[in-house]
Structure formats: C-alpha cells, structure tokens
Amino acid sequence: MHPEFISQLAKSVNLVEAKLDECLPKIEQSLIAEPMRHAVLNGGKRLRAFLVLQSAALFDVPETQALYTAAAIECVHAYSLVHDDLPCMDDDDLRRGLPTVHVKWDQATAVLVGDALQALAYEVLSNPKAANTDTIRVELISNLASASGANGMVLGQVQDIAAETARVPLELNQIIDLQANKTGALIKWSAEAGAILANQPAEALSDYANALGLAFQIQDDILDIEGNAQAAGKRLQKDTDAGKATFVSILGLDVAKLRAKSLVEQAIDVLIPFGAKAEPLRSVARYAIERDK
User: Fold this and answer.
1) Which residue range forms the structural domain that includes residue 194?
2) In this predicted structure, what is the pLDDT of residue 44?
3) Which of 46, 117, 138, 188 could form a disulfide with 209 if both were Cys (CB 3.0 to 4.6 A apart)?
C-alpha cells in the first residue's frame, strides 16, 4: 500500500477517535460508558469514517463538520459488530484481538451497548454543527436509518441467518444481494455522505461504493480462507465450518480474486471526473483487496 495512503488513514483514525472520545459518555458519568468505549475505541480500520471524510473533501466540506458524520457511522458500525458477536448471532469471543463485549461483560450489557451506540449515532448527526442546514441533517439521518435498518444492514443479517438453515445453498446473485445489504449499505452511505453534506449529486459516489462494497466482501471471504486469525483479530473459516455458500465457495478462490480485482478497477474508473482530489478514495478501493484483515 502507498505510504501516503497509510499516513492519511492514520491521521483519519486519530481525528475520528478523538471525535468519538468527545461524543461517548465518560466512564465516571455512566454505568454503560466503559463497555461502549471498549466496543468503539479499541482499534478498527475506520474505513467507513475515512470514506465520509474523503468524500466530503471532494466537495470542500470542512473536516471539522464532516467528523460528526464520520463518528456517527463508526457508532453504527460498532453497534452492528457488538450484536453480530452475540451467541444468538455469530457467537464470537474475539473482536479486533480483544474479548467481545458479551464475553468481557455479559449478553445483556452487549445488547444495551449496541442499542446505546445506535442512538448515539443519531444524536451526533442531529448536532447543529454536523451540517449546514436542517434539511441536510434530516437527509443524513433518514438515509442512515434506511441503510442500517430493515431495508439495509438488518435485512442483510436476517438473510444471512436464514442462509444458515436453508436447504439449498444461496446462488451467486442471492449472495450479492445479501452482502449489498449486510455490508454494502453502510459503505454506500459513507461514500455518499460527502455529497449530501455539500448538497451535491451523489450518483457517482454511489456507483463507486457499490463496486467497493462488493469487492470488500469478496476479500473478506478470501481472507476467511487464506487469512491469519492473529492478524484478523477474530476467528476465521466460520462460514466454511457452517457450510454456508460464499463468493469463494461458488466462484472458487482464483475467480473470486479476479472478480474483486475487476470491481476495484470499476470503482476507480468511476472517480475519473473528480481528478486528483479522489486519489484517497482510489487508494481505499485498492486497499479493499490488498488488506490482510
């Protein structure tokens, strides 16, 4: 990966985590603050936040303003992981190399942490400093609710759970639809956020995000087979052990890698009209299939 991208990503992580630290309840103020902070502040790539900040930069949206939106998406993402790790879902003991919330505390705490983080995301987005107008704030909030709810991420989770007990494994187009909801919806919202903040058309960024999200998920399936559990900070080969259909099981490892590479090229091509300002977003697309976790 290009050193400049690594530097930009590291800077973004620091900025977003500082904003999250500002927005999260303080440990001395709330009984649930410590597990919330454990869920959000202990590592993570912050790619969704990076997409927000870089899409905003395309339209010269002030970074101090865009950080509210970046923090909000990280809260929603963290909530989804806390709930996904529960025994009734994926039953994971590790997340980012650390005990999951239900392991470190208990299941009731994990449920409530997820609930609190989701609510916090909308509280952060409703801050007057998060956008120039009420209309933009409402659009961000409405779109995030759709992307994370019964027409987006939650739907994808339901589809994923149903796939575990389905008599017939999912076909390729069904997996694409599932992942567009489960993983892709929040990635798409993140990439579109900059255009929404600037009150500009988001179609190009939407096309970019659709290709990026699918490439990202294919790489996840590849890493589930080829990855290193220590580097990933979580248990691998869960889908294989469960007998679930994945991009790799359907396409084969080599074809899956080619498909992911083609999607990255597609995402990069969409950004041509934005010129050099879109280079960080191009780097995200390349990173999607170069990463090891």
Assistant:
1) 3-287
2) 87
3) 188
Q: What is the pLDDT of residues 120-132, one digit of tens each?
A: 999 999 999 999 9
> The tokens of 26 are what?
């303080």
Residues in Cβ contact with 271 at an 8 Å cutoff, skipping those fewer than 6 apart: 204, 208, 278, 281, 282
Which residue, among 252, 250, 246, 254, has the nearest Cα to 224 in the 3D structure?
A: 246
Does residue 293 belong to any structural domain of this protein?
Answer: no
CATH of the domain at 147: 1.10.600.10
Contact between 187 and 51 (Cβ < 8 Å): yes
Do strands 94-95 and 98-99 pair parallel, antiparallel, or not at all (unpaired)?
A: antiparallel
Which stretches of the chain are DSSP H helices? 3-23, 33-41, 47-58, 63-84, 101-104, 107-125, 134-148, 153-165, 172-179, 185-197, 203-226, 229-232, 238-242, 247-251, 253-270, 279-290
Which stretches of the chain drop beneath a pLDDT of 50?
none
Specify the pTM: 0.93
Gap between the terminal Cα atoms of the chain: 14
Point out which residues pair with 99 in neighbouring strands: 94
- Measured distance CA(205)–CA(267) in Å, rounded: 9
Q: Which residues partner with 95 through β-bridges?
A: 98
